[in-house]
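Q: What changes when BES is included in the input?
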Amino acid sequence: MALNFEVVAKAPATAKAVGIPVTSEGALPKEVSLSRATLETLGFTGKVGQTYVVPAEKGAVSILIGVGEMSKLDTASLRKAAAAFARAASGFESVSTTLAHIGRLDRKVAAQVVVEGMSLATHRYTDLKTVDKKAPKLATVSLVGTGAATSSGVKRGQVIANATNMARDFANMPPAYLTATIFANKAVEIAGQTGLKVEVFNKDQLLAMGCGGIVGVNRGSVEPPRMVRLTYKPTGAKGKPHLVLVGKGVMYDSGGISLKPSDPSHAMMKGDMSGAAAVLATMSTLKALGCTNQVTGYLMCTDNLPSGSAMAMGEVLTMRNGKTVEIHNTDAEGRLILADGLSLAAEQKPDAIVDIATLTGACQRALGNGMAGVMGNNQKWIDQLTAAAERTSDKLWQLPLEREYRPALDSYVADMKNVGGEAGAITAALFLEEFVGDTTWAHIDIAGPMWTDSDNGWLQKGMTGYGTRLLIDAALNFRRPGRA
Ligand code: BES
Ligand code: MN
Ligand code: ZN
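A: The predicted holo structure follows.
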């Protein structure tokens, strides 16, 4: 259940706990009954991420929320403090706090990130638990400190956090609960509720369109593929900048004939559609957030399974843009389905494309689980994305699109192979670049941050919904990047 927020002038008497922001230096707020020295012996210094529950004989308990040094408070630390507060307050049905009204931050942004931090930290995927659901009791949060900016920041935060939590739920669903067909049906339903145009393409249509990549990857599966195109047009769309998002939607990645070994971590390959989930979640918010840019989203959906009809090694696929690809590893399937999506995106002649994909273990090993890699053919566009990453804490790190490595993909029978070379994240991006022509494009590899193995801050064990907040921010703030 999504948290419910209200903006109030004064903490309501019904609040069972009151969150009090405490800095790491200077005087303590007068409501705090303990001294700094005592709090320190209890392990609470006011650092961001710390909380301390002060029990009360009667009335509401106080929860001290560390916010660090007031002069250093920014949106990232405020979101983190809010998440810590939500965790500490998770056993109370209703709480209040002044956390959205501290420091010199813009009131709207402060409210937004407090709502994000609290909503993301308390979200659980419990649909498949029949016992021990352990969902937080916390239901209502009263943010003390009124104002139009605060109210609109709360709304914005709720839309963004709910979308991120939706992306998490989709990625957490087991493969049989979310096939390409089911996902496409959900996309149609969501599009209807959020003011988007939606088109669904089935296998016959994809074949007729020459999408040899997605159809090739689908060959081993009894579940048919789906491509979904979502279109958002603001009022007076004509002449507005146009951005296209392309998401990898591999519902389950077994590796195909190049079967992955039986490692428990491969249960996470149900999340190989996290890119498509982030695109759908992003698209669903644009109308509510008043986006003034045109945005198109492609969800490229199929699973990757071995069978008698599966794509073989040495097979050559003809892709949407006519290029031919020799298969040297069926586990490098993401780039094959993205290729068709990127070609279709480029045909629309947009101002920029960004694809988002759980693409390579190489990127995960290089950057870890805390950030995604970004590469592309236009530095100004990459700069817009890294600025969005800064604002949202969906962290990005740029890797070089080193064209000297392109010969590693040369094939003696086709235009290129689907794998090759040492720098796996980079050669994957070089492969994708073959399908965008001269359209401004960037690629975000989220193999690392798609998943987290522990509850920490606003992340909860499991699928993270990474990329949703990043893409929403990038879409809202999109400007024509100009030439590279
Ligand atoms: N979906 C995987 C990448 C992945 C790995 C995502 C770990 C999330 C966590 C992708 O389809 C894949 O299998 N990539 C291969 C590519 C290789 C065969 C060139 C990889 O990274 O091993
Ligand atoms: Mn794979
Ligand atoms: Zn994959």
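Observations recorded in class: The longest strand covers residues 242-253.
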